[in-house]
Design goal:
This protein is about 60% helix and about 15% strand. The chain has 12 helices and 13 strands. The strands form 4 sheets. It has a 4-stranded antiparallel beta sheet with strand order 3-4-2-12. Strands 6-5-9-10 form a 4-stranded antiparallel beta sheet. Strands 7-8-11 form a 3-stranded antiparallel beta sheet.
């Protein structure tokens, strides 16, 4: 009896803890429930990388994961599809164009030295670029696609002409260690850079070469000139030391942060193309949640009613154990940071069925023992003992299937396997510990020590 009381206290503590966790920590919802953006990125070959193999796609996936992490998007999914595509799911991100700019840009940063005698040509090309950018904005407002394409082609030629006014890169993105946005006043933002030791030495040499000459440092991103600062004559002897630099320009806070994210995430090893960019609305997520809740609650209520009607007192005990099971499982989802998706909810609901099945096996074994003429206590004890091997075998095989699905599956399949696996493990605990404790506690009370409450139409004394 003392052991049963101790277990009851432990179960009560677990239930209270679970309720506290669920109240204070909201469940994490996936893209299909919360809404957000989903991008499908296709890798392209290049002269340097003529074929897309596992090494290349893994490298691209790593860069994209770094960028997603830098965006601060929680519950994101980055997974490969086939041989040359990557699926990115960003729950809560409502601006797919911004996500496309950040994740799909190659972000190849480099610093170049302006060629001598090119000042006038650089000024002229810069003026042309400004005019083309203004024309592009007007064409976009008018929705003239033909004019937009024409201007974009002219801009590309202009950027190539500007790049031709600079030497080959001296300092590249791989020399970068950190990049972050910082305010510059008047609602403008800059991007501060921190280089490695070797990169700092290269930057010092570059600035030393240009100090006081009037020629500029060309800061290029994907062969497009972002900024072209000059170096004061004060740095003619040593250059700018300390391993840091600032990209100046009229960047908004969002633009500066996006560029910093790209630079910190690294350069993509091959060109990529966004072949699909779609938004999952929050309304769809709410509808999915409501329907899932209705389905789950409806099925759970029917199961609870059936257990009481068919199994009487043991059925009521099983219902209590089932509620304890649901609280414990959801709290574990919260504690482990499990992201719930529709397949994940399906796995949870399926695990509820597994928990009910374990109780059904126990109660049927108990009835068999009662019909065989054993006392109530011995029948309950034998019911748990004889059913345990079947429960263990069933849950073990399901657990093995969950491990296989999680190990070999991807994305939503993993979510289903994880929630089902956790549910199966908790159902073992509640069936063997919670149901058993409640059953043995019940038969110690005189008002419940009646065999007919455990097996209808049976009139036998204990």
């Amino acid at each position: 009896m003392r052991k049963q009381r101790s277990l009851l206290i432990v179960i009560l503590i677990l239930v209270i803890t679970s309720i506290i966790v669920l109240i204070n920590v909201p469940l994490r919802l996936g893209l299909d429930l919360r809404g957000g953006s989903q991008l499908t990125i296709e890798l392209q070959t290049s002269p340097e990388v003529p074929t897309i193999d596992e090494r290349v796609i893994n490298a691209v996936q790593s860069v994209i994961e770094n960028r997603v992490n830098a965006l601060g998007v929680s519950e994101s999914v980055v997974q490969t599809i086939g041989q040359d595509q990557i699926l990115v799911q960003l729950p809560g991100v409502s601006d797919p164009e911004q996500a496309e700019r950040v994740l799909g840009g190659t972000a190849q940063l480099d610093f170049r030295e302006q060629l001598p005698g090119t000042d006038e040509q650089l000024f002229a090309e810069s003026q042309v670029k400004q005019q083309l950018e203004l024309q592009l904005q007007e064409a976009k407002q008018q929705g003239d696609q033909a004019e937009i394409d024409k201007i974009l082609n002219s801009l590309e030629n202009n950027e190539q002409a500007i790049a031709g006014l600079y030497q080959d890169p001296i300092l590249r993105g791989q020399d970068l260690r950190d990049a972050f946005a910082e305010p510059a006043g008047n609602d403008n933002w800059n991007i501060a850079l921190r280089f490695s030791n070797e990169g700092g030495e290269k930057f010092a040499q570059l600035t030393k070469n240009l100090a006081g000459t009037g020629r500029t440092i060309g800061i290029f991103l994907d062969n497009e000139l972002l900024s072209s600062p000059t170096v004061p004559v004060d740095f003619a002897e040593t250059g700018i030391t300390g391993g840091s630099a600032v990209i100046t320009g009229r960047f908004t806070a969002q633009e500066a942060n996006d560029l910093a994210v790209q630079l910190r995430g690294g350069a993509l090893p091959v060109p990529v193309e966004i072949v699909e960019n779609r938004t999952v609305g929050a309304t769809l997520g709410r509808d999915s949640i409501q329907r899932s809740i209705y389905a789950g609650l409806g099925g759970l209520i029917l199961v609870l009613i059936f257990m009481v009607v068919y199994y009487r007192l043991p059925g009521l005990i099983a219902d209590i154990a089932l509620i304890v099971y649901a609280l414990l499982t959801l709290a574990i989802f919260d504690a482990l940071g499990v992201t719930l998706t529709l397949p994940g909810i399906a796995g949870f609901i399926l695990s509820i069925g597994m928990a009910v099945d374990a109780n059904v096996l126990i109660f049927e074994r108990t009835r068999e023992e009662l019909r065989a003429g054993k006392t109530l206590y011995r029948s309950v004890e034998s019911g748990f003992y004889r059913a345990f091997s079947s429960i263990l075998d069933g849950n073990l095989t399901t657990g093995i299937a969950c491990i296989a699905l999680f190990w070999l599956g991807t994305g939503l399949v993993k979510g289903f396997a994880l929630t089902l696996g956790i549910g199966v493990a908790v159902s073992m605990f509640t069936a063997v510990t919670c149901s058993r404790t409640l059953m043995f506690t019940a038969i110690t009370l005189p008002e419940f020590r009646k065999p007919e409450l455990f097996c209808p139409n049976l009139k036998k004394a204990v």
